[in-house]
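The passage that follows is intended for readers who have already worked through the single-chain material. We present the inputs for a multi-component assembly, then the predicted structure in tokenized form, and finally a short commentary. You are encouraged to pause after the input and sketch how you expect the pieces to fit together before reading on.
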Amino acid sequence: MKLAAHYNRASIIISVSVLMISGIIYYLVINHIARQQLDSDLVEELEEVVAYVSLNHHLPKPVDFDEDVTTFVKTGRTNFNTVFFDTPYHNPKEIKSEEGRAIAGLVKANGQNYIVTIVESRENTEYLIQIITGVTLILTAILLSVLIVTNRLVLSGLWRPFYSIVEQVKWFNVADKHKVEPVEARADEFKDLSDAIVKMSSRVSGEYQGLKAFTENASHEMMTPLAIITSKLDMLIQDETLNPEQFNQISDIYSAASRLSRLNQSLMLLMKIDNNLLKDAEKVSVRTVILEKAQQFNEMMQNKNIELEYKLDDLEVTASKYLIDVLIGNLFSNAIRHNKNPGKIKITLLGNKLTFKNTGDALELDRETIFERFYKGRTSEGSGLGLAIMKNICTLYNCEIAYTLTEGMHCFSISFNQPLI
Amino acid sequence: MKLLLIEDEPALSETIEKYFTGDGGLCEVCTNVSSAIEKISLYEYDCILLDIGLPDGDGFAVMEYLQSSGKNECVLIISARNSLDDKIKGLNLGADDYITKPFHLAELKARLMAIFRRKAFGSSNVLNYDQISVDLLGRTVHVNDKPTILTKKEYDMLLYFIANKGRVVSKNAIAEHLWGDEMDMIDSFDFIYTHIKNLRKKLFELSGKDFFATIYGVGYKFS
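Having made your guess, compare it with the prediction:
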């Protein structure tokens, strides 16, 4: 539920209950005041009756007291306290019974004591109360609807900056050059929020750029020492006085140095792909690249007695030729490296779907982790970056890459999306 | 061949200098842009080996100087950056080739010889070594005036070894030269062995001479 709805609900519940309680209190107070008014009227009437009797020395006729019903009852009691009570009021004209208020008091006429009871209709006060209640209810309804409407209008206006901030945060990408823009807001809280997010995002971007630059520089800085190691080794083997054991050790150092430099190059390539630095997009025929690579890898396939089968449609994609080369090269090199001797590789390019199938270890690879950096099979001799590079190239060009094990063959398939940019 | 090496890393420049002066070549070293420009303006060189990252500016300044002063030296750029932009910029400024660190000295030599030959001999480009003569345009090889058919890899290898004659060349350097990025295959050394065996045999059949010496497990020497 939205914050505005929460707020609306709370404010409506509170205002309705406050209005109800105040309505009840209002009703009781009005009722009380009306009754007191009625009672003082009745007292006045009684006094009038007493005055009339003491002046005229006989009881008044009932008609003398317009709407009120006055009754006299003889009594032998000499003292009687004046009392008020509720009683039905019989309207003599309309012949119906209404709510009424009565007063009973003692009056003396011609030496005889009477209890006089005056009943007055409460219809007027009831009517008044009804009107007051009605007006209160109407006011409540108006108040509520005004409240709801203003809440909705004001709140949605007030919250607009918030939604625009949320939208920007949702699309925020740390690798992107696009910055979070500050949002104009009337409410200070949202201004603060916007400022904080703008600051945070620029700090995050800055730190990311710094980290990126650091990684890049670190990779580059490693190249010169590596060049020194390699060239010193190249010089060292010119010395013919070295013995075979020493040559063996040099050979191992060579291998380690070239592994390190390949690893470094792979990392830099990954970084370039991640940051989309290879923008030399052109039309590339995937079929041609596959045929070229098949030629290049021919020797290695022959060496492992790998039979290559392919069925290729023509497919042109717009992408960096270099990256497509790397992609296809990695597919080949994986398919050869993890193959059996003798083995098979089947390549199909149908429509926009490229599939590389190869025989090999019957165990299925973990689909979730194989594309992660430095994932390596138990027997893999590679850097552990080949599949990560493939995955990143595919991500860069919005292609899907998937791995399955079907009919005992490891199968990597790529669905190229057109246009690739 | 007179060579100018512009490189600020003493350990690297010392080794390159030693490798290149071995067979009668001349190699001078300087470590920054200003001294490089000074040397180029005073002397003639056949080739310039230029590191892009120098302490007093980038090596492109040297390229710009060469271009503006109409000098025609071959230039091979050495860079720690495997960046396409740098490569394109360098080649646009008149560099003949671009090599990325780390590299093998044999590779550097072979590349340098290739650009030097292209510039020095123009179109009639025949390379002679002992009884072997290589027609670089027709990509044909004659031994003792008799033609021999080499595969592409054998031909590449022959040129590579002629450029590094008298030097021990490591298997790693050969593998990287022949297969480049794809060489991270453990068995590429076996291929080298096969190719060398075939090349050796073809040359031996026509010349009666074994040009190759195996240096333990580490590499080969051509002489």
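Commentary: The helical segments of chain A are 3-56, 123-170, 188-236, 244-274, 286-303, 321-337, 386-396. Chain A has a mean pLDDT of 84. How closely did your sketch match?
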